[in-house]
DNA sequence: TGAAAGACCG
């Protein structure tokens, strides 16, 4: 079997890669003299260099280089042509790369497996993994042998198009039929796919498996799993993997620590975060832009905008430039506090720094105004962003739709929704959730059900959150049987209730005075390994109060405290009112002793 | 030989 075509050798051609390196060097601020052109280059090379200096980022320039290459004698090597393709890929001009490749084929320019792999990668980025497989067929037909990179690229393409199961099967077959010697990268592609499809535990198993197969996991493999565990709020498991890494002599890097810090931020474990930062310092790993952005986000979300501002100063002092994410995150923090003047100031600062707000930045701002019920300003911002040539995303429309529904501006919401469909915005599960919630919130449960069936027929698979919204809607409408049915059918749909849906059931039953059924839900949660949270207990306790079941409330309060939860504001005030009243129940008196010594 | 694939931020 041949391994590619022998390269045509040439010494006269200044490689595209070299050009690009020069190009980026000339663009970097540290370049001593951007106009300096070495004089030992040929006229043609200087021309190329000139081109690259003014900007090789227009695909036209690359095409001109390609035409020049075609006319050269001897013809540049397969490596040179491949480098041109790689350069186009680096600039994300995937479709141009594909057309250059097809031209190469029509001119019978030699190509090899690397050339093919690059083009397959382009197809995958263009969301046409099917073309990628057509190319794989061409590879076989021409007698080339796909290597592990070719397959990794295809697997990634499948996964990026939500075909993870196909990717997994293909990977298994590649191993089974010994088509590749798997490396850490291809394992990571699958591990990452499992993580992103919510199967972190399987990812962990694959991490173990690769080791058994003699492919030592590296820091990237660990980072992938650590990140996923952190996102699943299983930071302690992630910390366990960190310890394991050091046992195995695998050095953690800034990505490892950033993921862990992210996980700890979500749990507000500030002491542990400090310890991680100290650990990094000890290991001489400096926080990078991502790390700072994570910390800034955590502080901003927690309302600590002053600390967030300080962190931005700190990152600048440490040589990390704040980017659009940094500023957008800070803006989000201001919006959360309703400090819109400051949010708008950030927008101005960004522009002054030459960082232009994108659709997501506007969406954050629009979301902020919607959450504070300033719908008209939000709508105005939508117009502004469109005028600036930014295309609102499905998230932009969704947040506005949510605002309109909550403000009970139904007619506008309806028009807005139609408008959004006309613009060709593809609905996702989150938007559907917003629509269903909005309809239920306005007492339109029947419309919500119609919409629900419509979304199912469109191929959107409702998740537990969607069902929770509908169940909540039914309860709100007093339709207990419908709510109960929907809940009991969850298992038939292959879904497990989560703590939120259980809480909705408990709240619904309590509202209807069905305390026994509510309590049964609590038991069911424990059976299904879904631990009750503070909301669960508070809801049930308030239900007991309302139905004068003070003994039950007493027991539940003890149980809640034993789990480390506290009575929330509404439970406390309800208890306070009860104690003020004339009722003299022994259990009430006992509670009084407990709470008000 | 080279040139291609994998992890972290709104």
UniProtKB/TrEMBL annotation:
Superkingdom per UniProt: Eukaryota
SUPFAM superfamilies assigned: TPR-like
Keywords: Repeat
InterPro entries recorded: PPR_rpt (IPR002885), TPR-like_helical_dom_sf (IPR011990)
PPR repeat placement: 112-146, 147-182, 183-217, 218-252, 253-287, 288-322, 323-357, 358-392, 393-427, 428-462, 463-497, 498-532, 533-567
PROSITE patterns with a match to the protein in the record: PPR
Keyword field contains Repeat: yes
Pfam family, one: PPR
Similarity comment: family membership: Belongs to the PPR family. P subfamily.
Protein's recorded name: Pentacotripeptide-repeat region of PRORP domain-containing protein
